[in-house]
Amino acid sequence: MANTAIGGRPARGALPVRRLLAPSSRGAALALFVARRVLWMVPVLFFVILITFTLMHLAPGSPWDKAGGRQLSASIVENLNTRYGLDKPIWQQFLLYLWNVTHFDFGLSYQYQGRTVSALLVSAWPYTATLGVLAFCVIVPAGIGLGVVAALRQNSRIDYIAMGFSTFGASVPNFVVGMLFIIVFGVMLYNITGGNYSLPVSGFGLDDHLIMPVVTLALLPTAFIARLTRASTLDILRQDYVRTAWAKGLSERLVVLKHILKNSLIPIVTALGPTFAFLVTGSVIVETVFVIPGIGRSFVEAVTSRDYPMILATTVLFSVVVAIANLVVDVLYVFIDPRVRLT
Amino acid sequence: MALPIPSAPLVQQQDWDVPEQVGLWTDVWRRFRRNRLAVAGAVIVVILVLDAVLAGLLVQIGLIQDPIKQHVELSATGPSAAHLLGTDELGRDTLSRLMFGARISLTIGILVQGIYVLIGGTIGLVAGYAGGRVDNLLMRFTDIWFAFPDLLFVLVLVSVFSPSLLSIFVAIGIVNWVGLARLVRGQVLSIKEKEFVESARAVGSSHFKIVLRHLVPNALGPIIVTLTFGIPAAIFLEAALSYIGVGIQPPTPSWGVMIQDGYQAIYAAPSQVLFPGIAIAITMLSFSFIGDGLRDALDPRMRR
Amino acid sequence: MRTIALGAFAVLATFACGGNTTGGSSAQAAPADQQVLRINDGTDPNSLDPTQQTYTYEAAVGRLTFQPLLQPNAGLTDVQPAAAQSYDVSSDGLTYTFHLRSDAKWADGKPVVAADWVYGWKHFLNPALAAGYVDPFFDQTIAGGSGYSDVDVKSASAIDSYLNGLGLSAPDDHTFVVKLAAPAGYFKWVASLWVAIPLRKDIVEQAAGGAFPSTDTTKAEAWANDPKTIVGNGMFKISDYTAKDHLTLVPSSSYWGGAPKLQKIIYYFISDGNTAFAKYRTGDLDMLNVPIANVDVVRQDPQLSKQAKLYPKLSTFWMTYNAKETPLDNADVRLALSKSIDRDKLTKDVLKGTDTPIQSFIPKGMNGYDSSLGDPQKFDPAAAKQLLQKAGVTAADLSKFKLLTRDTTGNKTVNQFISQQWQDNLGANIAVDVVDSKTVTSRIRKGQFDIYGPDGWGADYPDQQDWFDIFTSAACHSLNWGCVNMPGYDALVQKADSTKSDSDRNPLYKQAQKQLIDTANVGFIYQQAEYNLIRPYVQNLTITGIDDQYIPGDLYYHDVFISKH
Lengths: 343, 304, 565
Known about the structure:
The structure holds three protein chains of three kinds.
Chain A: H1 2-7, H2 14-20, H3 23-58, H4 74-83, H5 90-102, H6 117-152, H7 157-171, H8 174-192, H9 211-237, H10 240-248, H11 250-281, H12 284-289, H13 296-304, H14 308-336
Helix pairs in contact in A: 3-14, 6-7, 6-9, 6-11, 7-9, 8-9, 9-11, 10-11, 11-14, 13-14
Chain B: H1 8-17, H2 24-34, H3 36-60, H4 94-130, H5 132-147, H6 150-160, H7 165-175, H8 178-191, H9 195-203, H10 207-243, H11 255-264, H12 271-298
Chain C: H1 2-17, E1 36-40, H2 56-65, E2 70-72, E3 79-81, E4 84-89, E5 95-100, H3 114-125, H4 156-164, E6 168-172, E7 175-179, H5 187-190, H6 201-207, H7 217-221, E8 236-242, E9 246-251, E10 264-268, H8 273-281, E11 287-289, H9 295-300, H10 304-307, E12 308-321, H11 331-339, H12 343-350, E13 355-357, H13 381-391, H14 395-398, E14 402-406, H15 409-426, E15 431-435, H16 437-445, E16 451-458, H17 465-468, H18 489-498, H19 502-518, E17 522-534, E18 538-539, E19 561-562
Helix pairs in contact in C: 11-13, 18-19
């Protein structure tokens, strides 16, 4: 009885649905779904570029305004505008940009003279991606594991510790966490060991340079995933069939645990999608505090210095990453909960 | 001899017979009250709100110090007799700034969640429930919304409308609702195929009733978590925006701004970062307890 | 009169350079692998081509990889030979003949010839490249240069005819001649700027893939994108560069003065002051500018306090009043505002003693400094209130104004203090208005502000000429944001700029300075100094007031070495 409730399908109207869901056509349906979503990326990208382009040119301040001191004279500004094609009418600039994008030409950066935006992003991305992937590998097991344990032992000491940890992770901004790590594991450790050892305070390296940035990066998402998992798991735990199976004893519990996990995964996977997108495109704060030469800072610096090509390129990059992440999440929905029907 | 005790299944059967509408809210309130943590959370929130409302009065009657009075000779000190929680970089009393900061931080942190629920919740609900083309269009719309640079959007917004508290409120709300939308959609997608929804549909309940009675209560858990985490996120976003001039202007305090300013002096006086952080943590924790309590109280399966 | 002036001058000069050299050559040098100097440059250069560099964090690199004809001497009293071993000025002051060093070589060993200088200066003055430092230093001085802003940058022939019409020539391999449009006593300083460097035509064209028209700015800069093609005539060359992380410089063995003692200079690009501070404290940086919030931490640390020292800079800061907003057009009102700022408190408490109060324009350590000139703006709240009364202005009239503030922590802190000062001393509620940096610049350029600050100026070179044209009426909307009307100022400055001898120029500049201060064109508040941590094993640093920001001694890195430690 309990088993039917967990893994079964409603008897009503099952037949025609079953035929559609036969393995081979199911794979084909999935492939079609993915292909259609990839095609949808094109209009999405078009609108993203259009909106960003408009916003960019509406924002006050020009790329040539300096942060202080001697400003460039009007004639120099004119020449710079000519040099970068900003003297053309806006609609022309937009169409030219779209044309270039289809050739993967994202233009020259205003901030870093003479260097192409794509070269800058390509050379900087590996650093960000490494940190992001490593952080993700910490978040998923730690977050989900903590959440499940806290749910299974609701209101116990472990639950309270987990809740305290996740509150801390969310209430202290990551620049504070990062700097506290630097102070404790950098400066204090250095003093304690008489100058012999400390965790490296800044820079990127495939060694202990990674520890502090990755942990700082992973802290808030882990806290969130843990609480999300806990809430989602608690919801499942309260279902009648689960309570019944749980009460039946150890052998039932293992089966139920697998089912609990599977069923509680939907909101977790939903949250992990954008989390992955953000991690892989970098955190401004972590990269600033730990001096990681990645692309995270490019997102913010491009806007504050009005580096138009860089703003557009980072936005396009982010859109693509997010679209892919959401596609993966939607596909995972189907695998986690076969009852979910997608278009 | 013991009298026969009604067996468990009998109780469960009784559960299903109780119509969900009668005395719902009194029942919810009663169950909420029994949850000690939830009540503690509610009490703390009430205290915080009172503090926010009365802070000005307290300064006038001299109970706490003036939050914008500078004592520059006492820049960035830790707790002392004259200043219980220390001073900031311009020598202003941290305790009073914390108490005043509650106004901005609580207002933005909490009320913005309302915008998220309104916009994000609605879109997610419609997308998940309707499915098909509507879902696709709405999700692609959120993809577009999610992707364009928020900072740029806010800068333009503020240049068009002046940088008042309302504009920052709108800015934060408009910018971050996508996460909740997606979460709600995911929940709805999985729940709407469940048996009890099918049975409700078979019985002929309207879409609205199905949404309200079945989908929302079952999706509540993760939504509450998202909103709870949204509070500190909104506070920090407000601080980040105020930093670039979008939002409150100095010397008005807010907890997020206090943390940012205190960060500069983190070596000299780490307490300046600690105290606002604790305030934010307490707020978040209180709402976590309230949220948990609310969810437990609303859960039809937990009725005794 | 003259002797006294010279004497006072000499005293100033000694003050400027005395005690600013660290260590001594008597200390023993550490082994070669420890001759590494690690510094935080803060921000990546936007370009590695010195002609395109405008910020100090870029010049810090440009100065080391290339070398101009002349450079300031350690006392900042005059220029001394650098890439040129001597120079003559014709009697009419219009022709500068630079005699280049015969042993000057590029980093790849080839000799530096005068044609390289002509090519380099022409590259710099190409209007299509729109280099920030051309105007007004070069286009207003060199013969044929004044048409810079009118050249049609889409036409290669227009650009070429402009460039060929400039007064630059190379009569032989070791003579570089510059003709000026009018005499300019300060031109020797202009020639010492880091932007005025030679370039190798063959390398530039090779990196561009062949010869290219003057309109092609991308090709003109291609060489600057790769350290391998950045071949300079300076004492260092770039060995590797990771954007946003660090840049490494190694000695150029073919430098005419012999290879520098340091084997490596590493510039890190750490923008977070706390991270840089931690890096210094864990032994990974050798010099560091201490962020203001951490100054007390350093002072109270027994070890760190011994390594820290205050180094005055030739930079002054002030508050700008927009004369288009009544009643700020009234000099008495501006004076009142300037007289209600307690500069002592500002520098001692808010800025932790890392800057010094100033009420005059030219900073201490430079020719033209005169603190007595600043008396009209001295802190005097009672007099300030009287001035307001005299002008018939009430505190309420002033309370409609806002103090435009850039979104940096330092500016916000200073402006909150100043706003409070105006509240306390005048009763005027002038609220702080924080706005993002680009928008601030765009607004002040359009005159859309009431009061703005702190704005400031750091000397490009230690000559007064560099300072006074900030406030000419022509500079209204490009530097003279307040557009205050000062009758006779423009003519005075122009006369001083074109006078040849220092003794004749200085009194004219003094008059101009007096006018600035008396009319409170702006309210001067402090002169900047840097509170820097320097390891005791860094020897022979020669620190001047115009060193690039946060890079002490970078005008004279040749003899710096690391001693045994």
